[in-house]
Design a protein that fits this description.
With 394 residues, the chain is α/β, with parallel strands linked by helices. The chain is built from 13 helices and 15 strands. Strand 13, helix 12 and strand 14 form a beta-alpha-beta unit. Helix 1 packs parallel to helix 7, helix 7 crosses helix 9 and helix 11 packs across helix 12. The protein starts with a strand and ends in a 6-residue tail after the last strand.
């Protein structure tokens, strides 16, 4: 193992290099470009034996990845924002064909207006396309998730694509300390690739992407696909535990901080979880019973586990870095609300939208959210619609 000062993108590119997949098909887009650029350099230098496909668009990148994975190759790509949106129809195809492609997504706002900075509107917009989704708080988690993604995607009970998210610029371009593994450790942990129903296996010909309408089995295929997503719940935890046993950093679907006796719990995802934990530490020192739950696995969503973890809270504040137009709140809020609907306790749940288009999240913003939640916990009337943090008035 080694401790390195590296950007979030650099850490992910290093993880992919250490796995050394057969094929990478990618197109550069801010703020993901460094991953594609670094990996292309690894190929050019002869550091990896990978076929690098420089495509003309992200739609082509995912199309090439689908063809590669269907042929029987371990395949990766990476994207952000408008690139993620451009490959939209192909995301569903990759998942429905049960192809274990892995894809780092460096989260960025979707246009318009044009904005190249961080929020989660891209990845959250693809939450129901059939991909497993893992979010990282920092470069370390981005690196570790990128490695674990291969084991999860390629597990025989899953065989689904996995996207791993870190926040654009905030994490992707920031230099920080990352504990990296040796190449041999990564390769041994990930293991050799086992192709299933490969197109190039002439001894066992298969049909891929068949017409499945007019009395076909489309319905049943969708149900089987969803069952594979359910299977991923245990596999994600199993892989995270093994990673922890080997390398000292254990992963689960979420991580809690000071929630055992908390009346108020803030739920966050991505880099903001670090901001929230810092503020909560100070609030705890001031005698306030506030805790944090940081979500890692968003798809499949760990409904029952989160319900149990939050069962002692009187009030819950859910922080979303994307909005859902016309819905009751942001994506994380609606998932948490649905999870707590079946709970014996009935905590009040409030939604806080923050950071759209890269807008800063300050400690005062988080403290203000907690003050509002304290009023709700005390029985004072507080509107339960969305609340926007650091919103300019006028």
């Amino acid at each position: 193992m080694a401790r390195k000062a590296i950007t979030g993108n650099g850490a992910i590119a290093l993880a992919l290099k250490q796995v050394e997949p057969d094929v990478m098909a990618a197109y550069p887009i801010t703020p993901q470009t460094e991953i594609a650029q670094n990996y292309a350099q690894f190929v050019a230098n002869g550091d990896v034996v990978t076929e690098y496909i420089a495509v003309e668009s992200e739609h082509s990148a995912m199309s090439a990845a689908i063809g590669s994975a269907a042929a029987g190759a371990r395949t990766i790509t990476a994207t952000s924002s408008q690139g993620f949106a451009l490959m939209w129809e192909m995301l569903f195809i990759a998942a429905s064909l049960r192809l274990p492609i892995t894809m780092p997504v460096i989260t960025r706002a979707l246009s318009g207006p044009i904005n190249i900075h961080c929020d989660h509107s891209d990845s959250m917009g693809g939450r129901d396309c059939g991909w497993i989704q893992l979010y990282g708080e920092d470069a370390q988690e981005g690196y570790d998730n990128a490695i674990q993604a291969f084991r999860i995607a390629e597990h025989m009970d899953v065989r689904l694509p996995v996207m791993t998210m870190i926040d654009g610029f905030i994490i992707s371009g920031a230099i920080g300390p990352v504990e990296t593994l040796d190449d041999e450790q990564v390769k041994e942990f990930v293991g050799d690739y086992v192709a299933v129903n490969a197109l190039l296996n002439v001894e066992k010909p298969v049909t891929v992407g068949a017409f499945d309408s007019l009395g076909g089995w489309y319905f049943e295929h969708k149900v089987i696909q969803n069952r594979a997503m359910e299977n991923a719940m245990d596999v994600i935890e199993e892989v995270g535990r093994e990673f922890g046993e080997l390398f000292g950093r254990e992963y689960a679907h979420f991580k809690t901080h000071e929630i055992e006796d908390a009346n108020i719990v803030l739920v966050a995802i991505g880099s903001a979880a670090g901001n929230v934990k810092t503020v909560v530490k100070n609030l705890r020192a001031a005698g306030k019973k506030v805790g944090v739950l940081k979500v890692r696995t968003f798809r499949p969503f760990p409904t029952e586990q989160i319900r149990e973890a939050l069962s002692g809270a009187k009030v819950i504040g859910v922080m979303d870095r994307s909005d859902s137009f016309g819905a009751q709140g942001g994506p994380l809020f609606t998932e948490i609300s649905a999870a707590m609907y079946g709970a014996e306790s009935h905590p009040k749940i409030f939604n806080f939208i923050y950071g759209l288009g890269g807008r800063d999240l300050f400690p005062d913003d988080i403290e203000g959210a907690v003050e509002m939640l304290e009023k709700a916990a005390a029985g004072e009337p507080v509107a339960q619609q969305r609340h926007y943090l650091n919103l300019r008035e006028g």
